[in-house]
Structure formats: structure tokens, C-alpha cells
Amino acid sequence: MTTATAQFHNFSQVRAVPQIVGADLEVPVKGGNLVGYANLDYAASAPCLAPVSEAISAALPAYSSVHRGAGYASQLTTARYEQARHTVRAFVGARPGDAAVFTRNTTDATNLLAHCLPKGTTVVVFETEHHASLLPWDNVVRLAAPAFPGEAVRAADEALSAVEGSKLLVVTAASNVTGELWPIAALAHIAHRHGARIFVDAAQLVPHRPLNITALDLDYVAFSGHKIYAPFGAGVLVGRSDWLTEAEPYLRGGGASKAVGPDVEWCADAEQRHEAGTPNVLGAIALAAACDALSATGWTPLLAEEERLLARLRAGLAGVEGVRELGLWGPEHPRVGIVSFVVEGRTAREVAEALSAEYGIGVRDGKFCAHPFVNHLLDGVSTTGCEDGTASAVRASIGIGTTEEHVDRLITALRELASRR
Predict the structure, then answer these.
(1) What is the torsional sign of CA 365, 367, 368, 369?
(2) Which residues are catalytic?
């Protein structure tokens, strides 16, 4: 183990803003030409960072099983896997003793926490959540979309005060529909004042902003590798270990069991207890490499570039007749690089297909696995399809690798599409 640990590759060296894999991708458009792909669909799955690809390439030659093998490759892979866990904990500012359980994605991590809630726990959640945070709970109080951030805090305060016993407040850190930032520090304070815990869906926050569980006093957070430039099928639940160690294993099998005879003794360690079977080792290594790459770059240049491009995008959309940006709390509220909008006279699918086929632009259309929230935002908006309840929106999202040309191409394309009405 000592030799393997000593040879663990360190990917945290200081570097400039990392490149993405596929930055030079060309795609066909109508007429048979090839154009550089304008990927504006980061909120669905971000492209792979070059340092992440390098980390995977470095790990593959010695890839093996973890935790129980005596061979050199197994020992080295185990060291890499556990170092990945340490890196992810540090990335989100976890407290000493916090667990970091690797999962498939944010949805899986949230369902894991739902499985581990003490019996009778009441969950308070806003209807504005992604389905991953909206649907896994059994005993739920669902709150309406708040008109402003202070109302979110007030509604949570009132709901939690009315609940007896174990309770959990569930909230997103950044909306996957509008990009708007939620007041998670204030909500954490309210939750703890009522003896509740708070779970934060950080999937859309961590690719864009730093997160510190300790400073914000959050109990649990979850996020996905594929949102943070590590598209290798891993996610993580980070937070207090007591509920996790007291619950039955999320999956039953090897690794979660300490001893098996007539009776089964389960591992007391929260991470082992809920990671039965062979884990997604490469996914965990990729996730950690992405965390390292962002930390090594530093948030200052990343934030500055995102704010510049986001302002350009939103100003451009505002200047296109017939395009309306969707938002919950007004245009000045802080947000990450996500914008959803509708185009008068066209369905969202028509817009997305035209952008792809004619301009080589990738965006998302639909309700973004947040149906109640999108329905709320579209209520009263003149949108094709609204009359039968099938209306949806277009979402453009940016990140590392997005350029001015990508943003300008989208605005030009929307202006041309809107003029064809």
C-alpha cells in the first residue's frame, strides 16, 4: 500500500484555464457544409476537460479492483480511488467526519439520502426543484414557487415550524432552468433553527461557483461528474455520516458486508456501507480530476469569463424581437451561466432543431426535468403549444470552452428564425 500510495499521480498542479476535449469538433449543417460546433448545452452534460481525460489515461494501465486486492495494480487503484474521495471532500469544504459516498449521479445520490432518512422524517421541498430533488421523498410538504428570495426563506420557516420530529429541507443551489442562485445560507440557518437538516442539490452550482459546506453550514450536498466536466458516470453525496451509518445499506452485496453467516454484519463505515459491489473507479478519478482542475485554475478567471459571456448572451436575447427570457426573481438576480427562453410563434423543439440543423448550435429544449417549475414560468406566457399544456422552453448554457462566437452565432440565428414568422 505504501508503494502504491507514493506513486499516486498528482493532478493538482497549477495550470491555466483547462482546455476541453472536442473543442475543434465540426458538425454538418444543411447544405452539406461542416461548421465548428457551438455547444450551448453545458447544463445537460458538460464536455470533458483535458486534465480529466489525462487522469483517466494515466489510471487505465494499472486499472484494477479496489479495497480487497493484494496485487500492485489493485493497491494503486485503491489509492487513486480513496484519494479521489479525499479530493472531492476538500473541493466542497467538507467537515472532518463527513462522508463522501460515490454514486452514479445527483439523482442516485439524492435517492441514497432518501433511503437513509430516519423513519418518519418530513421533507420540505419547493416545486421549483429538479425532479431528482422533487420525487424521491415519501413524506413531503411541497412549497409553491416563491416570488422573491425572502419569500423562499419565509415559506421554509413557516413550513418547518409546523413539522414535528425529524425534518429535512431540500433546495437547489442554482436552478437548472433559470440559473438563478438560491439563498442557501439563509435557508440553512432557518432549517437549523427549527432542528431540521438541509440537503442542497449542487449539480448546477459546482461547475460555476465555489462551494463550502462548512462555511455555509450545510448538512448534505450532491452533484454529478457529468455536470462538472467529468462525463464518466459518477456522482457523490457528501455530508453528515450519522444518518448514513444508521440506515440499511442502499445496495446489499460485497463490500457493504463485513461478515456473512446465518446473519449479516454490515460495515459501520458510511462509505463502505453504501458502495456495495465494484464501484465506478474511473468515474470517481475523473470527478476528482475535474475538481482539481477547477481548484488549480482558481475561480476568479472562470467567474470573470462566465459573467462576461452571460451578460453578452442575455443582452443579445433581449434584443431579439419575439424572444422572452424566463426567470423567477427578475433580471438582476445573480445566476450561473444558464438561460431559458421562448420564441414567439415557434415551439421549443422547432427552435432547437433549426439551431442544430442550420447553424451547428446545440441547445436543450423541453421542461428540463423540472415540469412544475417550467409550467409555473410559462403560465401566462404567450407560447406555441401552451393551449394544450405541452409548451416548453429552450435552454442555452455556457461554461469553459464557450466563446463569443458561439454566443453571437446563437443570437444571429434566433434573429433570423424570428424574422421568418
Answers:
(1) negative
(2) 369
Q: Are 302 and 400 in contact (CB under 8 A)?
A: yes
Angle at 190 between CA 184 and CA 196, to 5 degrees: 100
Closest CA to 227 of 331, 130, 97: 130
CA angle 45, 176, 214 (to 5 degrees): 95
**b/e burial code for range 309-320 (CB count within 10 A of at least 16 → b):** bbeebbebbeeb
pLDDT on residue 283: 97
Based on DSSP, count helices (H) and strands (E) in the chain, helices before strands.
15, 17
**Count of CB atoms situated within 10 Å of the CB of 97:** 9
Distance CA 349, CA 243 (A): 43
pLDDT in tens, 229-280: 999 999 999 999 999 999 999 999 988 888 999 999 998 999 999 998 999 9
Distance CA 234, CA 251 (A): 16
CA angle centred on 360, ends 357 and 361, rounded to 5°? 105
| 306 backbone dihedrals φ, ψ, rounded to 5° | -65, -45
pLDDT (tens digit per residue) in 154-166: 999 999 999 999 9
Residue (of 303, 140, 279) closest to 208 by Cα position: 303
Q: Quick one: which H or E segment has residue 351? A: helix 348-359
Query: In one letter, which amino acid is 280?
Result: N
**Residue 267 is placed in which grid cell?**
460495515
Residue 38 and residue 401 in contact, taking contact as beta carbons nearer than 8 Å: no
List strand residue ranges (DSSP E) for 45-166, in order: 99-103, 122-126, 140-143
**DSSP calls for 278-294:** S--HHHHHHHHHHHHHH
- The amino acid at residue 36 is G
Name the E strands within 278-368. Answer: 323-325, 338-343, 361-362, 364-366
Strands 323-325 and 338-343: antiparallel
The yes-or-no verdict on residue 218 having pLDDT over 80 is yes
In terms of DSSP bridges, do strands 338-343 and 393-397 run parallel, antiparallel, or are they unpaired? antiparallel
According to the model, what pLDDT value does residue 390 have? 67
Q: In which band, very low, low, confident or very high, does the pLDDT at 11 lie, cut at 50, 70 and 90?
A: very low
Cα of 254 vs its chain's centroid, Å: 29
Residue position matching grid coordinates 505504501? 2
